[in-house]
């Protein structure tokens, strides 16, 4: 059972105290813990749509795709590139912002647990993603919430990870301890290029993100993780399509062409960027 400690009320940021199957703040705002152990800290007032984030279908597609290990080289690259200062901590406090159904966080916790005590929290705005995640890993805290207002106290984590997600840097900085680390995992120019060539009549030039830097952070280390993999059945091709933004962006014809395939050889091109939080008066 997860601990659900050190969380804050999303309405007034007061600490949440556990009372049986609920978390309650001093102003009496109460949040019930779900049967599977997660907590929903996304009040209706802060929702911009009725069912925000990835849909039930996208979550299922990602779960079934990732479970087959196609993207495990990304996890291996994350684990081997963990900075030495994090490796030296006996307890590692890790937050996955936009964790989806939790595949990455589960694998990272499993791989680092022999050498560290892990305090791991996964947050996603999709209740479908968090429901799924919470059914499969009980030692991790799972929260329905938004990166825009992370419902935890400042300085709570040593490491924030945001993989293929929607980073909100001031929030990540707030919840990180001084000198804490932010890992951004993002697509490179050639990521799934063979699929994109089928989906789109023309490939738009790749836009490199955060070239001007990220305020409050210093880029310390970058890893290019590039590998080839093949899908040899229509189901996995459909799952990959359904778990990416291409499912919304590509034309009907493009999607039909991809869904007609039974085999495709693909390139994964992923950038890992490790940033370190700077103190307010820091000079490099
Ligand atoms: C492309 S998926 C990546 C999921 C996971 N990190 C992975 O790599 O498998 C993006 C995730 O961000 C979530 N998301 C979208 N907006 C969000 C927000 N404002 N706060 C937290 N999560 C958000 C979606 O629900 C979705 O699960």
UniProtKB/TrEMBL annotation:
<dbReference type="InterPro" id="IPR048647">
    <property type="entry name" value="RlmA_N"/>
</dbReference>
<protein>
    <submittedName>
        <fullName>23S rRNA (Guanine(745)-N(1))-methyltransferase</fullName>
        <ecNumber>2.1.1.187</ecNumber>
    </submittedName>
</protein>
<keyword id="KW-0808">Transferase</keyword>
<dbReference type="InterPro" id="IPR029063">
    <property type="entry name" value="SAM-dependent_MTases_sf"/>
</dbReference>
<feature type="binding site">
    <location>
        <position position="191"/>
    </location>
    <ligand>
        <name>S-adenosyl-L-methionine</name>
    </ligand>
</feature>
<keyword id="KW-0862">Zinc</keyword>
<dbReference type="Pfam" id="PF13649">
    <property type="entry name" value="Methyltransf_25"/>
</dbReference>
<dbReference type="InterPro" id="IPR016718">
    <property type="entry name" value="rRNA_m1G-MeTrfase_A_prd"/>
</dbReference>
<feature type="binding site">
    <location>
        <position position="29"/>
    </location>
    <ligand>
        <name>Zn(2+)</name>
    </ligand>
</feature>
<feature type="binding site">
    <location>
        <begin position="101"/>
        <end position="102"/>
    </location>
    <ligand>
        <name>S-adenosyl-L-methionine</name>
    </ligand>
</feature>
<keyword id="KW-0479">Metal-binding</keyword>
<feature type="binding site">
    <location>
        <position position="71"/>
    </location>
    <ligand>
        <name>S-adenosyl-L-methionine</name>
    </ligand>
</feature>
<dbReference type="Pfam" id="PF21302">
    <property type="entry name" value="Zn_ribbon_RlmA"/>
</dbReference>
<keyword id="KW-0949">S-adenosyl-L-methionine</keyword>
<feature type="binding site">
    <location>
        <position position="25"/>
    </location>
    <ligand>
        <name>Zn(2+)</name>
    </ligand>
</feature>
<dbReference type="GO" id="GO:0046872">
    <property type="term" value="F:metal ion binding"/>
</dbReference>
<feature type="domain" description="Methyltransferase">
    <location>
        <begin position="96"/>
        <end position="171"/>
    </location>
</feature>
<keyword id="KW-0489">Methyltransferase</keyword>
<feature type="domain" description="23S rRNA (guanine(745)-N(1))-methyltransferase N-terminal">
    <location>
        <begin position="8"/>
        <end position="50"/>
    </location>
</feature>
<dbReference type="InterPro" id="IPR041698">
    <property type="entry name" value="Methyltransf_25"/>
</dbReference>
<dbReference type="GO" id="GO:0052911">
    <property type="term" value="F:23S rRNA (guanine(745)-N(1))-methyltransferase activity"/>
</dbReference>
């Amino acid at each position: 059972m997860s601990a659900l400690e050190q969380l804050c009320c999303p309405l007034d940021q007061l600490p949440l105290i556990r009372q049986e199957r609920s978390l309650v703040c001093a102003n009496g705002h109460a949040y019930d813990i779900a049967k599977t152990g997660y907590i929903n800290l996304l009040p209706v007032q802060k929702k911009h749509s009725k069912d925000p984030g990835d849909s039930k279908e996208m979550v299922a597609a990602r779960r079934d795709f990732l479970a087959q290990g196609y993207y495990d080289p990304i996890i291996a690259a994350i684990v081997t590139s963990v900075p030495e200062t994090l490796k030296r901590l006996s307890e590692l406090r890790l937050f996955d912002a936009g964790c989806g159904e939790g595949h990455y966080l589960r694998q990272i916790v499993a791989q680092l647990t022999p050498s560290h005590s892990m305090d791991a929290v996964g947050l996603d705005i999709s209740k479908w993603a968090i429901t799924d995640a919470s059914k499969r890993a009980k030692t991790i805290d799972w929260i329905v919430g938004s990166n825009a207002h992370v419902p935890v106290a400042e300085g709570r984590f040593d490491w924030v990870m945001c993989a293929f997600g929607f980073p909100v840097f001031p929030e990540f900085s707030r919840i990180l301890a001084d000198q804490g680390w932010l890992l951004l995992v993002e697509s490179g120019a050639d990521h799934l290029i063979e699929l994109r060539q089928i989906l789109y009549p023309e490939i738009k030039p790749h836009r490199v993100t955060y070239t001007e830097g990220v305020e409050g952070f210093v880029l310390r280390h970058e890893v290019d993780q590039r590998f080839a993999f093949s899908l040899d059945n229509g189901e996995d091709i459909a799952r990959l399509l359904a778990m990416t933004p291409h499912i919304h962006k590509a034309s009907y014809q493009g999607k039909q062409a991809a869904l007609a395939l039974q085999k495709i050889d693909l390139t994964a091109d992923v950038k890992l960027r490790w940033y370190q939080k700077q103190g307010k008066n820091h000079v490099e």
